[in-house]
Amino acid sequence: xxxxxxxxxxxxxxxxxxxxxxxxxxxxxxxxxxxxxxxxxxxxxxxxxxxxxxxxxxxxxxxxxxxxxxxxxxxxxxxxxxxxxxxxxxxxxxxxxxxxxxxxxxxxxxxxxxxxxxxxxxxxxxxxxxxxxxxxxxxxxxxxxxxxxxxxxxxxxxxxxxxxxxxxxxxxxxxxxxxxxxxxxxxxxxxxxxxxxxx
Amino acid sequence: xxxxxxxxxxxxxxxxxxxxxxxxxxxxxxxxxxxxxxxxxxxxxxxxxxxxxxxxxxxxxxxxxxxxxxxxxxxxxxxxxxxxxxxxxxxxxxxxxxxxxxxxxxxxxxxxxxxxxxxxxxxxxxxxxxxxxxxxxxxxxxxxxxxxxxxxxxxxxxxxxxxxxxxxxxxxxxxxxxxxxxxxxxxxxxxxxxxxxxxxxxxxxxxxxxxxxxxxxxxxxxxxxxxxxxxxxxxxxxxxxxxxxxxxxxxxxxxxxxxxxxxxxxxxxxxxxxxxxxxxxxxxxxxxxxxxxxxxxxxxxxxxxxxxxxxxxxxxxxxxxxxxxxxxxxxxxxxxxxxxxxxxxxxxxxxxxxxxxxxxxxxxxxxxxxxxxxxxxxxxxxxxxxxxxxxxxxxxxxxxxxxxxxxxxxxxxxxxxxxxxxxxxxxxxxxxxxxxxxxxxxxxxxxxxxxxxxxxxxxxxxxxxxxxxxxxx
Lengths: 199, 473
Hints:
By secondary structure, chain A is an all-alpha fold. Helix content of chain A is 81%, strand content 0%.
C-alpha cells in the first residue's frame, strides 16, 4: 500500500479516536469506534500477512457490534444529527487530545530511534497516538460506555505496537479474548446503569 | 493424563457446569467447595515425581500442555502453590451460601482460581499479564452485581489493571538479549521501571492505591476479601517468578532498599489514611494495603531469609482476611446495611458479642499484636528492619500505630451504644446462632494457637518456594 494512503488511514484512525474522546453521542461514538478498528488494517498489513492483519479489525468490529446491540436493547441509540455545536467540555477534551498528538508527532523523530528502533515511524505514531488518546479518555471519564471505548482504544494502540515487536498466536488469541470480554463488561455496565436509572 | 488438564482445564469446565446451578446456592456452593477441596488435597498429596501408584499400573502425569506453539507447564514441585490457591477457593466457597453475594460467586471463583494457576505456569511467563487482565474482567460481576450502577471503584480498578498490561508485556521485550549486551544499564533501568509500575498498578500499592479502598467499600466483604487475597498471594508469587527468571532484575543495586521503601510507605499510608475512614469497607481496603506492604518488606529481606518469612506469613494472612470477610459479612447481615459506617456499629458488642469480639481480635491480629497468628512474622520483620534501617523502622511503627488507632475506633464504636439508648442487656445475645458462636470460638482459638505455634500454619506450605531455585540459593 502506498505510504501516503497508509498515512491517511493512520490519521483517520486518530481522528476517530479523537471524536470518541471529545464527543458524547452514542451513535457517533460507535461509528467512530468501527472506523478506528477498520483503519488499523493498512498499518497491520505492512508487518503481518493479510489473514493475520484481519484479526484485530475484525475483533474491533465484533466489539462495536456487541456495544451497538446492547445500546439498542436499552434504547440508547438515536439517529445521528449532524449539529456541530460543541460544549466547553468537548472543546477542552478535543484540544487536549490534539495537543497530545501534536507533541507525539514532535517527539517522534527522537523517540522512535531511541526506544523502538525496529518499529516503523508511522506505525509507532499511530499506536502511541491511540494509547495516549485511550489513556486520556480513561482518565477523564466515569461513564462505563466511554470507559469501555477508552480501554478498547488504549488496547488497540498497544496491540498495534506489540504486533510490530513480536507475534504469537497464543498472545493474539488472549488479546482477542480480552477485547471481547471488555466489550461484554461494557455491555454489562450499560445494562446495569439502565436498570438502576429506571428503578 | 496431564497436570494442566487436572488443575486448570478441569476446574474451568467445572465452573462452566456450575453456571446453570446458580439458582441453587447451597448446591452450587457445595459442589464448588467439593471441587476446590479435591483439587487442593490432590495437589498437596500428589508425589513430586507425578507418578501415582494405584495397584499394578502406576499413573504417570505429563507436566505440560502445548497451546498455539507455547506451553503451560506444571511440574511436581509447583503443586504446593496450586494447593494453596485451591485451598483459598475452598475456604471462601464453603461459607458462601450464608451471605447475600452474587449468584455467580461459586462458578466464577473456581474459574478465577484456575486462571490464577495459569498465571503462575504459562510459558512465556510474561503472557500472564493478559490472563491477569482477563481475571479482572471476569471478576466484574462479583464486584459489581446487577441492581446497582457501576461505581468509581470498579471503573478505576479496571482502568488500572488494563494500564498494567502493556507495562509488563513491554518489559520483557525491552530487556530481550540483556544478558549478552555489553552495556545494558539503561535497558535494565527501563525494564525495571516497567515491571515496578506494572506491579504497583496491579496490587494497588501506594501511591496508586486509590481503587483499593473504593472497591472494598463498594463490594460485599466476602467477595472482595476472596478476590483480593487470592490476587495478593498470586501476584506476590508471580513477582518472585520475575525475580527468579530475570537475573538482571534481582541483581539491580539497591532493589532491596527500593522494595523496603515501597513496602514501608504502603504500611504508613495504610495507617495514616485508615484512621480517617468512615466506612468499614474502606478500612478493609487499607488493611490490604498494609499487608501488601508487609509482603514487599519480606521480599526485600530476600538475603536474610525473607522468603521464609513470606512463606510463614501466607496462611496466617489468608486466614486473617477470611475472618475479616466473615465478620464483615456477618455484620452486613446483622445490621442490614449495605455500606456500614463505623458509627453504625455503636453498641453492637452488647447485641452480638461474639461477632464483635472476633472483629476486634482480628483487627489486633492484623496489626501483629503478640499471641495472635500474625505476630511471629511481623515481629521478625520488625526486628530485621530495626537492624537494617532505623528511619524506615520509625515510619513503619507510625503506620502500625495508625492501624492500631483504626482498630481502637472500631472497638470504641462497638462498646459505646447510641446516645439515646440505654446500655443494652446481654439478654440479646441469643440473636447469634449457637453454630455461629461455636465457629467464632474455634476461629479465635486457631488465631491464638497459630500465634503460639507458628509452625502449625507454616509447615503445610513447606516446599512452596521450591520453584524459585535462583532465589533460595
